[in-house]
Each structure stands twice: as structure tokens, then as C-alpha cells.
Amino acid sequence: MKLKTKILLGYLVVLALLLGLGSYNLYNLSRLDRAAQNILKDNLYSVQLGQEMNNALSHLLVTQQQAVFLKADSVEIAESTRADLRRFEASLQKESENITEPGERETVESMRQTFAELKRLLHTSAAVPSEAYFVTVMPKHQLLQDKIHQMVSLNTDALQLKNQQAQETSQRVWQYTLALLACSVLFALVFCFSVPEALTQPIQQLITSLEYVAQRNFSQTLPIKGNDEFGAVSKVFNQMLVRLREYEKSTLSELITEKNRIQSIITNLDEAIILLDAEGKIILANPVACRLLGLPPEKLIGAKTQDVAAQNDLFKELLKGIEAGSSDSPEAVLSITDLGEEAYYRKSVFQVLAYNEVLGKQEFAGYILSLRNVSDFKKLDQVKSNFLATVSHELKTPLASINYSLKLLQNQRIGEMNDEQQHLVATIKTENQRLQKMVTELLDVARLENGNIQLNIATANVADIVQFAANTIQLQLREKNIHLEISLPPQLPPVKADVEKTSWVLLNLLSNAIRYSAQNETIVLSASEGKGEVVVQVKDHGPGIEPQNHERIFQRFVQVPGKEAYKGGSGLGLSISREFIQTQGGRIWVESEVGQGSTFGFTLTV
């Protein structure tokens, strides 16, 4: 769709909005007019109340005259008088609650006083002679009627005045709205037919000049007309053309110098660097990379990655990060024979993104493959692992001796101890057992790092593993009165696993669940069949784990931070569990929210 059409459609939409706005305003004015008329009902209500009071007063006057001059039945007269007084008083009360005009409150108060005097006189009117009636009672009737007439006149005058003002205001608003709406429509129509043409003409000139620029013709300048935005654009565009002509005439010596400098830096790096373009071709390989791959540069540069991978196993291994769609794989460490010696290199794969100024977005430009020599770090890690294994192994014997000695101390045949001594020995025994457990875990870590742990993979029944773990953990469950709920489907396929290591993992997860659960809670141990695997899960109702710590807790020597954290562990259990499960071809994870408990799960291959 052309820009002119877009602008025209945009202004037509504006026109439609103006029409809608005008219609809506007219509708609101109509509603305002009706609302003003409704307001006038308050004055009309006062007029109606005045008529009701007049009727009650007139009927009261007739009744009293019958009682004074005709000596009518006093019982009926009294009942009628009370009814008229109640009618008048009720209307007077309603009028006092509907004061709307200046002076109306004073008139109503005067009516209330006069009515009170009349009411007092009517209680004694039966004993008043007819001559005195015209002197005492009749003037009060007349005065009250005058007050009612005055109140009605106030509201009638106000009713007429407000009605006239509302009509004048409504008529004036209608005129103003119609005038503004007409001006808006006319203004929008003028814009719809004039502005698009004024905008598209200089834009078309700019497009024509840009087409020449795309063909490397920098002579098509734009005419500068006026000092508006298009004039400024034309001026800047012409300056750009001048710079482009100057740049076209300049040499590429600076670019070549920079290219040679970057290439020299990459060539002299002690890391292997390989650059791939977006089409999967090798555009650069420094000497270290050529040496490790065992291929000369002429066989690498310009070759396709698939062709080189088919002939070179190391290059095929490097491409695994690209095939997996990973932009960075810092944990991949490869063992490579370099200069006749075994060396360790850390593989990294990075995506190269280039900013496309034409499209205004980042675009994929290729990959950087790097191999960094980490042999020294690997040797230090090996020394650490050996030291850890040696120290842990040496600690087992004295810790076992200490544990045996503590058992002897607790034996009453050796000698009785008081309560404080028994408490101290029990505390030392607990801490000694914790040290033994930590030493065992450190030995497992050392064996995992050295690859000395042998897995006995065999066909196993998940229900047997679950039942063994449940029976073993009963003592810990009873200490906190925690109920273990086991949920297993009737038919679970057998799995391929190391029963001992898998039972250790399940016991570790159950121990953690008990450790972080409160008294009298319930832990759910369940298993279900997945696609080619069996999923085992342990769910507790503990404090939960924050999302940012879901991955950290599987690292070595890491515990969940916070006041709810358990301080007695070594931070190795989950790390060892992950090694055991992943070595068997499974995976382990946690699902948890703070305050909602945690669910740890792992899979076993069918």
C-alpha cells in the first residue's frame, strides 16, 4: 500500500472519529437537557406539596366552621380535624426537606410557627363563640394560606426561570457544537485532499535519488525548497552524497590495514580460533587450530563444515555445539593429543550477530569456535581430587575408632555417666556420624571425578527400590511423626539401573524431604511411566526453594540460603545424586515455590 493511500486512509479515520465525537457530544447534550428538566422537578414537587397543604387547610376550615356555627357532631368533627392536621403536617414536613430556593426556608419556618399556633387554637375552638372565631382562628387560617401562596410563588417563579435558562443554555450548546463539528469536518476534508499530495511529492523525489545511490550514482541531488522538514532532509541528503563521493574516491588502505591487524592478533593467539560464515564455510583458522586439527590452512579456509567434519573427528566434535543450537558451551572439555602429549581444551561456540542498518535489526553472521588450553587447570583439579580422596580415606579410620570408643563409653559396663556426660557423649557421637557421612560423600565425589565408580546396570523393579527406601527411612519418619504416602501404579515396566546407587539417590531425596518438613507432615513418594522412562518423584510441604536456586542446589557444597536452611549437611548429596542419575542415562530436577513445598524427581531408563 502506497504512503499516499495510507495517509488518506488515516485522515478518513480521523474524519470518522470527528463525526463520531460530534454525534456523541450531541447525544450527551440531549441527555444534559433531560437532566436539567429533571432537576426542575424539585420545584414542581414543592408546588404540589403547597396544593396538598391548601387542600388540607381548606377542608380543615370547613370542618371547623361546621363545628362552630352548625354545632355538628363533635366526635366526627374531632376525627376529621385530626386527619386534616396530619395531612397538613406531613406535607409541611416534606416541604421542609425539599428547600431549593432562597427565602424558601424562612417562609417554611414561618408556616411551621403559624401552623403550631393554629393547631393550639383548634384544641380550644369548640368553646370559642362564633364572634371570637373570626377574631382568633380565622386570621391564622388566612395567614397560613398567604404563607403557602408565598412558598408556591417562590417555586413557581424559580421553575419558570430555570426552565427558561435551561432552554437557552441547551440551545446555545447545540449551536456551538454544530458549528465546531462543521469546522472539524471541513478541516479534515481539506487535509485529506491536500496533505497527502504535499507529503508524497518530496518523498518520491527522495526515492528516486536513493535508487541512484543504490546503483552507486551519487550525482542525483535533491532540490532544497523552503525551510521545512523536507528542506532539512534534502540538505542533509545532499551532504551525504558529497561524503559518499569523497569516500568512493578514497583508497581502501585503512580497511586493509585494520583487517591485517585483526588477522595478526588472531594468528598469534595461543587459543585455537575458527570462524564460520552464515553459510557454514570456514573463513579463518589460526595456526593453533590447524595444528590441533592436523590440517593445513589451504584445506580449511573456504571449505564447508560438513566436508571437513566428515574427514576430521575433532572438527566433528566442535560442530556439536552448533548442531545443538547452543551459542556457548563452556563446560565442554576435550582431551586432545597435542605435540605428542595429552592436553585438555575447553570448547566454546559463539554466535556472531551483525547489525543490519538497512533492516534495522540484528542478523546472524556466523560462528566462532574456540579451543582454550586448560591443561594446567585440569592438573590442578586432579591434584585437588587426589588430595581430597587421600584425606577422606585417611579420615575414615580415626572416625570409625572414635565412633567405637563412644559406643564403649555409652556401655554401662564400662562405667556409669551422669546426665550431662551422657548428653555430651551423644552430641559427640552425632557430630562424629555426620563427619563419617561427609567423608563418605567426599570419597564418592573423588571417585566420580576420577571415574573410579563402577555402575552395575541391571534390570530392576522400581517398586522394590521404592519399598527398600521406604523401609530404611522409617526411623527418621518416626522421629518427626511424618507420614510417607507411596503412590505407585499397579503395572510399572522394569528399568535399567544400578539398584544400589538409585536407592542411595532416593534415600537422599527422602532424607532431605524429612529434614525440611515440619512435625506431622506428609511426604508423597510416587512413580509413573513416561515415554521410554519411569519418573520417580518425592514431594514435601517444606519452605520451598526460590527459582534462582533450582540449579545451584545441584552444585557441590551449595545449600539453600535463608533462615529455613538446614545447617547440618555438606552440600554434596544432590550433586552426587545428579552424577549417579546422569551416569545411568537419566535426569534429575526440582520443582518448587517458596511456601509451597518442593518436588524432586528423577528418571530411569526403561
Describe the overall structure:
The protein is an alpha+beta fold and 606 residues long. It is built from 18 helices and 12 strands. Strands 2-1-5-4-3 form a 5-stranded antiparallel sheet. Strand 11 and strand 12 form a beta hairpin.
Please state the average pLDDT score: 78
- Identify the strand order in the major beta sheet: 2-1-5-4-3
Query: Please, how many helices?
Result: 18
Oligomerization category of the chains in this entry: single chain
Number of strands: 12
Structural class: alpha+beta
Question: What is the helix fraction of residues, given as a range?
Answer: 55-70%
Short précis:
With 606 residues, this protein is an alpha+beta fold. It is 61% helix and 14% strand.
Notable characteristics:
606 residues; flat; alpha+beta; 5-stranded mixed beta sheet
SSE blueprint:
Elements: H1 3-39, H2 41-69, H3 74-96, H4 104-122, H5 130-214, H6 229-249, H7 253-267, E1 272-277, E2 282-285, H8 287-293, H9 297-300, H10 305-311, H11 313-318, H12 320-323, E3 333-338, E4 341-356, E5 361-373, H13 375-410, H14 419-450, E6 458-460, H15 462-472, H16 474-479, E7 483-487, E8 495-497, H17 499-515, E9 522-529, E10 533-539, H18 573-583, E11 588-592, E12 598-605
Parallel strand pairs: 7-9
Antiparallel strand pairs: 1-2, 1-5, 3-4, 4-5, 6-8, 9-10, 10-12, 11-12
Helix pairs in contact: 1-5, 2-3, 2-5, 3-4, 4-5, 13-14, 15-17, 17-18
